[in-house]
Amino acid sequence: MPKEEEIKELKQRVAGLERENRQLQREIEQIKAVEQELAAANEEMINILESISDAFLSINRQWVITYANKAMIKALKANGNNSNIIGTNFWEAYMYGNEEIKDACLSSMNDRQSSRFETYAPIIGYWADCSIYPTDNGIAAFFRNIDERKKNEKIIKKEHHRLYALFDSFPGLICLQEENFMIRFANKSFQAKFGPCEGQPCFKAIVGLTLPCPDCYTPYLLHNPTALWNELALEDRTYEVYTRPFIDADGTTLILKVLIDVTDRKRADRELARLERLNMVGEMAAGIAHEVRNPLTTVRGFLQLLDSKDNTKHNHDYYELMIQELDRANMIMTDFLCLAKEKSAGFTQINIKAIVESLAPLLSADALNQDKEISLELEEVPDFQGNESELRQLLLNLARNGFEAMKVGSTLTIQTLAWEDYVILKVCDQGDGVDPMIFEKLGTPFLTTKERGTGLGLAICQRIAARHNAVLNFESTPTGTTVTVKFACKDYSKLIVQ
Questions:
Q1: How many CB atoms sit inside 10 A of residue 480's CB?
Q2: pTM score > 0.70 for this model?
Q3: pLDDT by residue (tens digit) across 273-317?
Q4: CATH classification code of 348-494
Q5: Residue pLDDT, tens place only, 10-35
Q6: DSSP per-residue letters across 327-371
Q7: Which residues form a coiled coil (predicted)?
Q8: Among the residues of 409-482, which ranges form H helices?
Q9: Which CATH class is domain 151-261?
């Protein structure tokens, strides 16, 4: 009986061992399968590393180079270095290598930090985009050849320098703006106006805004290759803005902006338009003034005759009013004829200080009648060629305009002075200044703020100034207006407008 139990127990143990053996065989097969998979994966990884164009190194924790792919071996051979580096110490193999790469390898090995940078790698002989990573066994390093890119960057940089130097030589204000509104480049003229602005948004640099302009053309131009012109007013200047898409040397689509200061041209256009209006009035005057003055003279004479009769004395006030209005019409005709004159006759040597002094009694009388003051600040000035009668008229017109602009008790100041090759006449009043709405239109024929004014006084002054090749300028503040007439006195005879 005991023997049978032993046999039974033995069979059970054999069966258990068989089960364990089968289990062990399955585990061995699984391990072999995993090893085969690992070997296949390792082979595939090696095949991948061998097929890539980037040079690759694997270094273990003892700084032994455990693997180098074909690209690394080829680069070492091409640069005349030892290509049998597998199994060698990294520091011996890379003794004369780039310090930046050495530091990155140390950091990756010791601090387990990844790094990526561009540098020249002398061991393999080209500029490389370096990527160095920590691994379980040490570190891995990839070196991508970027020589071609560096050459292209050098070409692009050279082209940028040539292009931007060309933009710098232009007198206009030029900037190149990126899609995100950032200014990539601004020429010297642009930076002289808006300050150092490269890297700033255009809307901040140019107009001082925190957001893009509501009517900005940038989004439109990036999708529509066309050129646009618009006008921009900044401070006291006016600019024409030329905007169009621009392909930079690196292939980037930018927006080219050219700001051209047209303030002086606009002013010249307005002056030309004013002169054309003066010419038009002059032509009208030349055609009708004489024809109108003759019947006016006849009518005035008969009115005086009627006024002298006894049976019309009761209508004296009416006749007097009609005669005054006819005299006013005659004065307007005289102004027309003055505008119609193309050139001044009888140019002689005159002195503007002497003209002011000769008119001083008349002007003082005008000031006294209006309870106002007049101050003369007259410096000695050189003589120049001019028409004394016309310059007397110019001074009287300016002075009487000043008197009419001032309140009781105010002072009108008349100055003469010499400056460089010019003689300056200034008439300064203490009025309330000129309305900004009409300041730019001063001198326009028939423009007047007076109830009974003709609007021809300043037009006549400008015509006289033009015939004397002089410049008439206006400066106005809420405390008064200054009219400056600048006469050229050097070689004046050559400058007279014929």
A1: 21
A2: no
A3: 777 776 776 666 666 666 676 677 787 887 788 778 878 777 877
A4: 3.30.565.10
A5: 777 777 777 888 888 888 878 877 77
A6: HHHHHHHHHHHHHH--S-S--EEE-HHHHHHHHHHHHHHHHHHTT
A7: 7-51
A8: 436-439, 457-467
A9: alpha beta
